[in-house]
């Protein structure tokens, strides 16, 4: 579903990510782990066509992120921790606004809305304006917007930032449920504990380079049961 | 076009649900324009009238009896003093008159706009002028000469302008001027909210990950700014028209005393109205696209406003020179100058003097500038260093 080959992004003299090569298949959660500034956000922006790679290439659902950006966007959903939706619209209006870009109108929209509302337990809040919602509910609308068209690829970047314990729990459960529908999920975070819960495979990103990749079990074994220990050991010995 | 209208709809709904914004952009102009345009004129007319009707004391020195009587007849109370000039300077009297060697000297403090001194000096001048004319008439009568000997012929200046030109009055200049201001201020509200506002609120990234071509995105946001700009323009001009209608109906005499005629008898034919509407639309399109491009470059509301303020000045300053358009010949190439060309054409459309060449040049060049600005906005949306500039 996602294939990156030698993916590189440079900003003038600074290198944000360099030579990233990894793949994510359907029904898999790939946790991209690393501290702040490791290049996680840049990687997801590259995959979601928000920034152009300086070198290398990436395919999302079989489409090239440089040559076919609109096709790529039709096949992915992106959620990040700082992402918001229009606070003066109701949840329903926000979703209807975005649904139209994916050709979901009329009956198709209503069906998609029913599905996403049931999947994320949104029914009671759809007709509230976003500004009247709690932080957790707003985040659910952000997620609903990203998956309304049921993209085969979902990218989550520090998606639990600022969420309370209930909202965070709901989000982690959602990630697993979305994976179980057969979709590919890239879960980017610096909170290793979250990755331990949701990931199938992990990639350690350190100073813009992918320094380790493997199954969660292998990574846990490397860190004697802790992804955090595995990351620190890898960063110190491999990078 | 579905994506374009979808984006425009979202931007407008966002703005229309902000009551403060709607009030300041659409309601306030309707309320403020009559006050701004006609308030000072009506107030000035009323004050001048009251001052003229009031009986004022004036300092006098050395005036003959007949002059004193003439002043009293003009609702003035002459008060004999030593030095009228000093007392007027000290503010103890609004005006003073001294007579010496066959010369009446009228003293008043004349600087600082319209003052009571000016009005009273006018009353004194009129009273003395009437006295002078009466004395001349008496002298002529004593010598058996008719009064007409003083004016063997008359000179009349006749306004040869068309009725439509006369009717447009100052409004031919003022309406385009205010229209530009309202288009700028109304369009800015949406342009900033749709660009820097999206960045600041964290909503832009979600929009950019949707499969919307950048041209549709930029055009949608620009058209929303255009719609708000035109609505704001209509609101402002409605306020002006309402204020004008009210002033002409209830206080025409005061309006006449307050200053030069503002017009108010404007009557446009269908073609001119369509021409004006097209001009306003193209101007709004140009300004909307420019503001969207600039707004996107900003990191926040505040920064966007700091970029757009100079743009507004740049747009408004040249319009001030349009006041002098009657003193110089306006060459054809001015129809290619952005914004100024639209104001010139609007003025000509109001007066019925627009030529096909000026219309084609103005509309064609404004459309070209608008497309350039739109291209700039599309380019800005495609630049990651602009979109993620924070």
Automatic annotation (TrEMBL), chain B:
Pfam families: ABC2_membrane_3
Single Gene Ontology MF annotation: ABC-type transporter activity
Domain ABC-2 type transporter transmembrane: 21-379
Entry membrane topology: Multi-pass membrane protein
Key word Disulfide bond present: no
InterPro entries in the record: ABC2_TM (IPR013525)
Database matches in PANTHER family: ABC TRANSPORTER PERMEASE, ABC TRANSPORTER PERMEASE PROTEIN NATB
UniProt KW keywords: Membrane, Transmembrane, Transmembrane helix
CC terms in the record's Gene Ontology section: membrane
Subcellular location: Membrane
Transmembrane segments: 20-45, 170-190, 202-219, 226-247, 273-295, 307-324, 357-381
Domain of life per record: Bacteria
Protein name per UniProt: NatB sodium ABC transporter permease NatB
């Amino acid at each position: 579903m996602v294939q990156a080959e030698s993916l590189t992004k440079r900003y003038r003299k600074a290198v944000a990510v360099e030579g990233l090569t990894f793949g994510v298949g359907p029904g898999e959660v790939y946790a991209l782990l690393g501290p702040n500034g490791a290049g996680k956000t840049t990687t997801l922006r590259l995959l979601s066509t928000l920034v152009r790679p300086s070198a290398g290439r990436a395919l999302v659902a079989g489409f090239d992120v440089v040559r076919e950006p609109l096709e790529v966007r039709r096949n992915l959903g992106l959620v990040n921790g700082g992402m918001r939706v229009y606070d003066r619209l109701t949840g329903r209006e926000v979703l209807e606004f975005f649904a139209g870009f994916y050709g979901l109108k009329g009956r198709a929209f209503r069906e998609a809305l029913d599905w996403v509302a049931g999947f994320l337990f949104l029914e009671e809040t759809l007709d509230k304006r976003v500004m009247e919602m709690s932080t957790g509910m707003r985040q659910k609308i952000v997620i609903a917007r990203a998956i309304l068209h049921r993209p085969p690829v979902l990218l989550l970047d520090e998606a639990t930032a600022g969420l309370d314990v209930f909202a965070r729990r709901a989000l982690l459960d959602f990630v697993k449920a979305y994976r179980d529908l057969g979709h590919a999920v890239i879960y980017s975070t610096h909170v290793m504990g979250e990755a331990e819960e949701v990931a199938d495979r992990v990639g350690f990103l350190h100073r813009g380079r992918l320094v380790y990749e493997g199954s969660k079990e292998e990574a846990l074994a490397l860190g004697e049961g802790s992804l955090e220990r595995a990351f620190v050991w890898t960063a110190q010995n491999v990078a | 076009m579905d994506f374009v209208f979808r984006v425009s709809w979202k931007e407008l709904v966002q703005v229309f649900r902000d009551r403060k914004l709607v009030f300041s952009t659409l309601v306030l102009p309707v309320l403020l324009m009559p006050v701004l345009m006609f308030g000072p004129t009506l107030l000035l007319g009323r004050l001048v009238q009251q001052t003229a009707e009031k009986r004022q004391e004036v300092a006098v020195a050395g005036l003959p009896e007949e002059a004193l009587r003439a002043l009293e007849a003009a609702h003035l109370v002459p008060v004999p003093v030593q030095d009228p000039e000093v007392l007027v300077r000290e503010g103890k009297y609004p005006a003073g008159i001294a007579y010496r060697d066959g010369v009446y000297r009228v003293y008043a403090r004349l600087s600082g706009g319209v003052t009571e001194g000016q009005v009273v000096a006018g009353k004194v001048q009129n009273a003395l002028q009437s006295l002078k004319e009466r004395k001349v008439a008496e002298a002529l009568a004593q010598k058996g000469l008719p009064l007409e000997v003083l004016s063997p012929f008359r000179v009349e200046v006749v306004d040869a302008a068309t009725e439509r030109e006369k009717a447009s009055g100052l409004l031919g200049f003022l309406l385009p001027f205010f229209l530009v201001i309202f288009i700028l201020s109304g369009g800015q509200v949406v342009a900033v909210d749709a660009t820097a506002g999206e960045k600041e609120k964290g909503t832009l990234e979600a929009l950019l990950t949707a499969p919307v071509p950048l041209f549709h995105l930029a055009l949608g946001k620009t058209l929303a700014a255009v719609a708000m700009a035109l609505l704001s323009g209509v609101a402002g001009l409605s306020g002006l028209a309402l204020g004008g209608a009210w002033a002409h109906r209830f206080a025409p005499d005061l309006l006449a005393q307050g200053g030069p005629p503002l017009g108010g008898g404007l009557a446009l034919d269908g073609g001119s109205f369509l021409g004006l509407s097209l001009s306003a639309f193209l101007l709004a399109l140009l300004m909307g696209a420019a503001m969207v491009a600039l707004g996107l470059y900003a990191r926040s509301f505040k920064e966007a406003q700091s970029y757009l303020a100079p743009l507004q000045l740049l747009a408004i300053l040249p319009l001030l020179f349009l006041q002098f358009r009657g003193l110089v010949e306006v060459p054809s190439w001015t129809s290619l100058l952005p914004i100024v060309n639209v104001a010139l054409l609007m003025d000509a459309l109001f007066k019925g003097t627009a030529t096909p060449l000026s219309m084609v040049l103005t509309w064609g060049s404004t459309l070209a500038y608008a497309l350039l600005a739109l291209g700039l906005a599309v380019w800005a949306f495609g630049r990651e260093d602009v979109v993620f500039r924070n």
